[in-house]
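Input (structure):
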């Protein structure tokens, strides 16, 4: 009987995907029921006359424990399925993450606090100050904790498990901190020297045709992703390198829509509402094609959103609904996401002739 304790799993996604995952593993006739509430859940997968049972315990610190139960004759298959879902929905194996961002201004810091309390629905469970720093500890809806120390010199330290709050923090920083602040943070976290002039040269080289279109805010968002090339040591978390390029991909799609006077930032019109699935890809929906009639732009936007949906939506929460979170833990995965996104932005810009 397998028992895995204190895993950093995305519980929401695990439950939503459980039936599809069970059908893939046990067979198309498998059916799933989730019983219990609160911290204790029982997953039951039925196929033919067999019932495979998993006990899930949602601990108060946001981690998850899983073990097989029921008929001992079913334990081998149940154990294998537990191993699968523990890998599929693992956010990170790292127990704790700590890093600092220098010189976050007061308005940005307050925006961060408001974002956690209002948008993420995190609760402040500790707040105290002394002559040197203010300490604020947030608790997320799944129980995970994030501790923030705001020093009098503007330096801000973040500590916590790599769970939902940490992932939202990375998303926030990639969007609102300047390129220099993110690069400075990367140097401090990973103890590397990053040459900003080299990053600028590579950026201009890789976005040779599209760099003028990306100039300004989009460039500031994307630029920190190129500092990955300066890191020669193996890391347990590459998220701060990957989030900027995917945030930039989102901004690039929005910028194209803006050229056709299409608003994409209202509450009832996120960018996904302009696309429709077609097999494993996405294309503009009928209403949007009636506004954007150029076939090359339609195809480019379809390819861009397909990549966006595949990569960014699987890494962290974007437009509401289920929180999909995981940490990018290998250089190969980070390099792959970076290369695919850079190449697609540049090639689609050339094809669209904007």
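Output (sequence):
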């Amino acid at each position: 009987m397998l028992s895995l304790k204190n895993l950093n799993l995305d519980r929401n996604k695990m439950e939503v995907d459980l039936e599809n995952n069970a059908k893939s593993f046990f067979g198309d006739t498998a059916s799933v029921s989730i019983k219990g509430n609160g911290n204790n859940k029982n997953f039951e997968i039925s196929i033919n006359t067999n019932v495979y049972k998993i006990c899930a315990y949602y601990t108060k610190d946001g981690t998850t424990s899983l073990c097989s139960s029921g008929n001992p004759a079913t334990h081998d298959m149940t154990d294998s399925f537990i191993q699968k879902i523990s890998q599929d929905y693992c956010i990170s194996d790292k127990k704790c993450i700590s890093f600092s961002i220098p010189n976050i201004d007061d308005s940005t810091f307050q925006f961060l606090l408001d974002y956690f309390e209002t948008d993420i629905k995190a609760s402040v469970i500790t707040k105290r100050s002394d002559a040197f720093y203010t300490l604020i500890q947030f608790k997320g809806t799944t129980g995970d904790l994030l501790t923030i120390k705001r020093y009098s010199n503007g330096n801000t330290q973040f500590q916590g498990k790599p769970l939902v709050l940490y992932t939202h923090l990375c998303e926030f920083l990639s969007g609102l901190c300047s390129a220099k602040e993110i690069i400075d943070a990367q140097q401090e976290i990973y103890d590397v020297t990053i040459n900003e002039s080299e990053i600028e040269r590579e950026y201009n080289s890789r976005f040779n045709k599209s760099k003028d279109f990306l100039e300004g805010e989009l460039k500031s968002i994307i630029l920190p992703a190129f500092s990955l090339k300066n890191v020669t040591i193996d890391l347990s978390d590459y998220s701060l390198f990957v989030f900027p390029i995917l945030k930039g991909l989102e901004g690039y799609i929005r910028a194209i829509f803006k050229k056709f006077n299409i608003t994409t930032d209202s509450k009832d019109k996120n960018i996904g509402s302009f696309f429709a699935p077609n097999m494993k890809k996405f294309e503009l929906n009928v209403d949007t094609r009636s506004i954007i009639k150029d076939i090359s732009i339609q195809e480019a936007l379809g390819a861009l959103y397909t990549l966006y949906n595949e990569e960014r939506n699987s890494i962290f929460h974007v437009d509401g609904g289920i929180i999909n979170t995981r940490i990018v833990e290998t250089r190969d995965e980070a390099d792959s996401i970076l290369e695919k996104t850079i190449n697609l932005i540049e090639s689609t810009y050339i094809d669209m002739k904007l």
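Notes: The first strand starts at residue 3 and ends at 7. Confidence is low (pLDDT under 50) at residues 316-325.
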